[in-house]
Design goal:
The complex is a heterodimer of chains A (221) and B (607). Chain A has 221 residues and is α+β, with helices and mostly antiparallel strands. In chain A, 33% of the residues lie in helices and 27% in strands. Chain A folds into two domains: 91 residues, Helix Hairpins, CATH 1.10.287; 119 residues, Immunoglobulin-like (Sandwich), CATH 2.60.40. Chain A has a five-stranded mixed beta sheet, with no helix packed on it. In chain A, strands 4-10-9 form a three-stranded mixed beta sheet. In chain A, a hairpin with a 4-residue loop joins strand 6 and strand 7. In chain A, helix 1 runs antiparallel to helix 2. The relative contact order of chain A is 0.15. Chain B has a single domain, classed as Cytochrome C Oxidase, Chain A, CATH 1.20.210.10. Helix content of chain B is 62%, strand content 1%. Chain B has a two-stranded antiparallel ribbon with strand order 1-2. In chain B, a hairpin with a 2-residue loop joins strand 1 and strand 2. In chain B, helix 2 runs parallel beside helix 7. The longest helix of chain B has 37 residues. Chain B is globular and about 85 Å long. The chains are: A alpha+beta (221), B mainly alpha (607). The interface between A and B is large, with 83 and 95 residues. The structure holds protoporphyrin IX containing FE (HEM) and copper (II) ion (2 copies). The site of one copper (II) ion has 5 residues of chain B, from helix 10.
Amino acid sequence: MLQWLPDNVSTFGQGVDNLFYAIYYITLIALILVMATLITFLIKYRYQEGKRATYIEGSTTLEIVWTAATTVIVFVLAMFSYPQWNKIKSPTSFPENPDVVVQVSGKQFNWDMTYPGPDNEFGTDDDLILENELHVPVNAVVHIRLTAVDVIHSFFVPQLRLKQDALPSRFIDMWFEATKAGRYEIPCAELCGFGHSGMLGYLNVHAQTDYDAWLQERWPQ
Amino acid sequence: MHDNEHTSHHHEESFIRKYIFSLDHKMIGKQFLIYGLLMFFLGGGLALLFRWQLAYPDRPLPIIGASQQYMDEGEVVTGADRMWERIYESEKEEWLEVNMPNGVVDPAFYNMLFTMHATVMVFFVVVPILVGAFGNFLIPLMIGTRDMAFPILNMLSFWFAVLAAVIMTIGFFVPGGHAAAGWTGYAPLSSDAQWTGVEWGQILWGLSLFVQGLSSLVGSINYITTIINMRAPGMTFFRLPLVIWSLFIVAILLLLAFPVLSSAIVLLVFDRLAGTTFFTTTAEGGGDPLLWQHLFWFFGHPEVYILILPGMGIASELIAVFSRKPIFGYRSMVYAMIAIAFLGWIVWGHHMFQSGMRPGLGSIFMTTTMLIAVPSAIKTFNWLGTMFKGSIRFTTPMLHGIAFVSMFVIGGLSGIYMANTPVDIFIHDTYYIVAHIHYVVFGGSLFAIFGGIIFWFPKMYGRYMNDTLSKIHFWLTFVAFNCTFFPMHILGVGGHMRRISNPLQYEFLQQFEGMNIFITMSAFTLGFAQLILVFNFFWSMSRGKVAEQNPWHVNTLEWEAPTPVPHGNFGQIPTVYRGPYEYSVPDEEDDWIPQTRPEHAPATGGD
Ligand code: HEM
Ligand SMILES: [Cu+2]
Ligand SMILES: [Cu+2]
């Protein structure tokens, strides 16, 4: 089933996928065991002429065993997940000194990408606002200040394994580092009105030289 | 009109007293059941409309859609074309013209469809049937009393629910359309008309849920009081059938959870009508959109357990009865339900991992959520334990019980993926969630409901439902259900967002066109299969084979009452001497012992 996952192109994506696979195999085994037991019981203990059910009220040992076993499994899973989650979402553990900083703002029904320009400050004359097109270099740390102007939207790039809701009048920081050049879709993942379906931007990941050329074209010096 | 089965000390009642404003818990239970089944059709119909759009985006619906020639050249060829011609020529803005011109579902209408589908299913189908119908019918009968503690409140609870349904229905026809911000009604989309163009629809949505909240509140107080105070002599708490335990716990959850939603709705309506901005920020300050989410999910997560716990209770009865065995680990079943009810209050943040809530909180909610998988697993193992060394009768109710267990397992396991914060980054707001919801609520609760209806029908109406029809309905539903919802896991893994009306607008979703068509065809099959159930239900009421008093040989008290159950239920209030699951006790001739049979030998331990 997991072959349906879109190709991963972010540095942290593999960590997400590993957890995905781990849970997949754990739950698959659990499912097979439960179903096999169920089917075996249904066949073996089906009603048969002259055979009575055995009066069993339960087993404290078994209750303790399966309670403990499931508790341990879910805790171990949780332990492996904390660092991965913090790495992706916790601003205190983001890589410092980003190569690119962009502000992304959702509005019915577009993504506005604001580049601070050479002075690296938002709200100045050299800012560049692009509708639905985000340009970043490959293998570079990108910081995004995510916001929205009207309702809640959600910035989703399946290949980056990244999703974050955009809230009006709040700035939420996120980061990624893309490992493969290409053009990827940025659908909006949170219902935002009648144009929600089709609210779509693009992430353009360029090789460094192409990115430099793009910069040169935008801010000629 | 009246059958003369009433015990003599009860006077005959007028038609209105008996069938409409009835105070009898059994009649109110049946009213809730029919109410739920009717609303089930509304909810299902809405789903089929939007499923069509997902399979064939922007193509006209079958039968009522306009023909290609008509859309291209204005040439009237079919009857449907003639209808559209009339609609376009009329002066008025016709409802169909606004919502689905030419029979093509408009994107705004699409949003309304899935919003109302979920709202109807959660608040007007599953809760009214599980809690309203089964709760009312079963509680007094199974604990051995004559009626609910407060019959008038009970009647009110039903009529509040009717009022809520009426308000909800009106919403479809007001200008601007019905609510279209999702069943979760996230602000600011829901709190300001300018973002959706929905004016009165959202307010009626809120008002209706508020009234439905009153219904639940009144009902739950009644249930709690009845179960605590009116149990028959000898009916200790640990002799209660598990379905009664589940309804007791659910009543407490409803009592505590629903007021939170009601309060949030009041704030929402203020935001819309008075501009109070509880859920939005303005230049001068204001509230926060996340406040709505916290309030909604603080109610919403307990609510999803309200949707499943009675299903678990019903499935437990079915599995014990038809395995002819005691429930394996009766007490741990009870404790697991209590644990679920407690943990249910501290996991709501798992719906908000990607919402902008502080990431550290995400880790905490992940931990509590993962923990809630433990009692769910305990229950599953105990159901398996109950079948172990049983003598399983594959009656139709039992088939539903087995379906409940196997589908619930899939739904519970998919919950673990989403509870895992990093994995949830990817699958949040995708079809993975939709698959999960339906495996627990349809695969779980609805199968339990179907099984419960067939199982208790003989007590409700004195007749069996037609078994052939029930079996056809079961197999069609089981297969079509899995064909409809299992592939949604795959869509979710592929990143397919939920709540989009046209997946073909996205490059990376093109590959799923075929799968969406397959899902829609399965969904239509699933929908039509339900017609069999409803036909069978109404037909069997008057034509079914007449049932004896205790056709399945069950121990619990409801089967001690005569069939049809008279006003007041029992000639004399029964005395309870034993637990509800004494099946296949060694050295007994029968494989069942009613709870009312006195102990002749010393107790054999257990509960
Ligand atoms: C093993 C137990 C369960 C776990 C671990 C679990 C976990 C979760 C999580 C983490 C979500 C949020 C996913 C997201 O939006 O990203 C979710 C959604 C949901 N769950 Fe469960 N769940 C469990 C059982 C249930 C049960 C028993 C029900 C109801 C009968 C249920 C009904 C729902 C519903 C309705 C939603 C979706 C709400 C929405 O966004 O519209 N879940 N579940
Ligand atoms: Cu959006
Ligand atoms: Cu939840």
